[in-house]
Amino acid sequence: MANRVYFASQGLSIGGTTVQGAQSVGISINYSLEQAFQLGRLAIYDNIVTDGEVSVTASKNLDGNSTMFTLFGGGNIASHGTTTKSIVVASNTSEAATALEASQTATTMSGCYLSSLSYTFPSDGFATEEISFVTDNKSTAGTVAAPTSTSKENVYRHHVTASGVHASDNITNISISADLGREAMFKLGQFRPYHRFANFPFEVTAEFTIANTAVDTTVVALGATSCTGDGDLPAQQTIKVIVCDSNSDATTAGYVFTMSGCRLSAVSQDGGDTGGGNASTTFTYTTYNTLDVSESFS
């Protein structure tokens, strides 16, 4: 019997494949309750469970191994609408082990749907992926193979470039996120949901934080907009975040995150106050149903 669970004793798999570079994993259970009351009494009349939901959240470093997103259902977000897979979380039964071993306890969340995902590319720290899944089925079964020892390099700031917007700016952070807005569907004669549908269209956002060299010069001229033109309204554009294959060379793309049909939706400038901090501007771009993640490693 183990006295504790810590990072070296845990493992995570998606669809039977161990996640390489995993940083954290959490499991939560939430029961929805509905109360019934009756005339003539203040005390509750009934308190029933209407739904049970299991959520799994996990993060990993981008490290030259497959993302959890592609392990789950491929690199195109539009293909994840009905995809389901099993997520297994395991830990050693002996604290003496220094890595995940065959003697382990595990829990399996079957029939998981992708719920949300995000990628962060900071100028200080490793690039990371965070993802969440949802299901209504959790059992005490399954195993996870120990991750392999690889020489792949974790993604740092010098591996990341942008194409399409702000390529020549001093980018200090990029984030990409999407929420599939899962909702349960029920039918008479069955307690558990028979489906958890995704709310199309999927909104995908990309945020670029820039270290200012001058005040923001984005033009807003709504009066110039007419039926014959858009004036100075933001045009649609394709955004790419490119991560070089650090095991090969900087000219070879390891990960490419592509979003088409993006429009500028918000600009926020702050900082540069008397506390001594630098001024920065965050540009937010929005699109729908278009997030493609391609992977190619040496």
Explain what you see.
With 298 residues, this protein is an all-beta fold. It has one domain. Helices cover 2% and strands 54% of the residues. It is built from 1 helix and 17 strands. It has a 15-stranded antiparallel beta sheet that branches. A two-stranded antiparallel ribbon has the order 11-12. Strand 1 and strand 2 form a beta hairpin. It is globular and about 60 Å long. The two termini are 41 Å apart. The relative contact order is 0.16. The mean pLDDT is 91.
Secondary structure elements and their pairing?
Layout lengths: L9 E5 L2 E2 L3 E17 L2 E21 L6 H6 L11 E8 L11 E19 L5 E8 L2 E2 L20 E4 L7 E9 L3 E5 L2 E8 L5 E9 L25 E9 L3 E22 L9 E9 L3 E4 L3
Antiparallel strand pairs: 1-2, 1-5, 3-4, 4-7, 5-6, 6-7, 6-8, 6-10, 9-14, 10-13, 11-12, 13-16, 14-15, 15-16, 15-17
